[in-house]
Amino acid sequence: MMTAQPISSRPKAMITDRLRLILSTDERLRATRRRGSSAPPHFVRSEIRPLSLARLRSLLTPTIGYRVRDRLKGRAMTALLRWTIRVHKWIALIVGIQIVLWITGGVVMSVLPLEKVRGEHNIAEHPDVALQSAGLMTPQMALEALGLSDGASEIRLRVWRGRPAYLVEAIDGTTTLIDARNGERLTPISRDTAVEIARADYNGEPDLEAVEYFEEPTWEYRQSGPAWRISFADGEGTRIYVSSDSGLVTARRNDNWRVFDFFWMLHIMDYEERENFNNPLLITASLFALITVLAGLLLLVLRMQRLVRMELARRDTKTN
């Protein structure tokens, strides 16, 4: 528990000096009267007056005022210091662990190379292929081949496994890949096709560890639509996800990504989707952390002021 701040020695010295002046003047006056002589010439008549209670009160009132003011100021500062310590302590207990997780996550995520987290160092290079429009279906013909009379939200012409193809996204969000030369449906792709696409995407020839099919998104994939997951035994825990509807590589995962994702989850405090950076839990914890920091800064300023006052009081004591 914090105690009240001691009163500076300056008011005490002022009281002592005034009392000495009063007593010395009164004593000299009494001595002069006992001898029956007149007052010494250096005494001023107005100063040689009998010591009375009213005079003593008038002489001591300024000093007592300083003392009371310093006491009130000291109590106010002590109360402010006490409440600042309480706020800093209890809020720090609430968000202290999360602050440590923020700092730890920041260190880990800054240490991990981002290209390795994304798996870009294992992506095979493919030369660009020029598309020739001659002999290709028009987008309208592609829509008719798919039976999409209501149109589509997006149509893209691209090269897929060495052939031109239209990637059509319907209004309801479903995706279909068709051959741009004859309108043949190329998706959904089979298991063997997914493995070939994943091998072509990987820079190297590691052994296959597992091939799995998912209708619903997993915690690691987090994208809509069914997908094939091809796991490689490359020592990095690499997994390549190939969309069954589009025939494209839609995600690459490895051990670096999983470590990064775990600390990212702790950092943004989204323990389900791990994507929402504006969730209420994160905002609340951030506000409490800000209050903790501000209370700590105020506590530092108050303690420094107290140390300065104590040092000045110690110097005044030595001087007097």
Any overview of this molecule?
The structure is a single chain. The chain is of the alpha+beta class and 320 residues long. It has a domain at 127-186: Nuclear Transport Factor 2, Chain: A. Helix content is 51%, strand content 14%. The chain is built from seven helices and seven strands. The protein has helices spanning 9-35, 53-111, 114-117, 139-146, 191-201, 255-268, 280-319, and strands at residues 152-160, 163-170, 175-179, 208-214, 227-232, 239-243, 249-253. It has a four-stranded antiparallel β-sheet with strand order 4-5-6-7. Strands 1-2-3 form a three-stranded antiparallel β-sheet, with helices on one face. A hairpin with a 6-residue loop joins strand 5 (227-232) and strand 6. Helix 1 (9-35) runs antiparallel to helix 2, helix 2 runs antiparallel to helix 6 (255-268) and helix 2 (53-111) packs across helix 7. The longest helix has 59 residues, at 53-111. It is rod-shaped. The two termini are 31 Å apart. The model is unreliable at 1-8 and 41-48 (pLDDT under 50).
Brief overview:
With about 325 residues, the protein is α+β, with helices and mostly antiparallel strands. Helices cover about 50% and strands about 15% of the residues.
Give me the CATH architecture of one domain, please: Roll
Q: Can you tell me the residue ranges where pLDDT is under 50 for at least 5 consecutive residues?
A: 1-8, 41-48
Distance between the termini: 31 Å
In the CATH scheme, the class of one domain would be Alpha Beta
CATH topology of one domain: Nuclear Transport Factor 2, Chain: A
- Percent strand equals 5-15%
C-alpha-based Rg, rounded:
42 Å
Task: Output mean pLDDT.
Answer: 80
Instruction: Give the helix tally.
Output: 7
Order of secondary-structure elements: HHHHEEEHEEEEHH
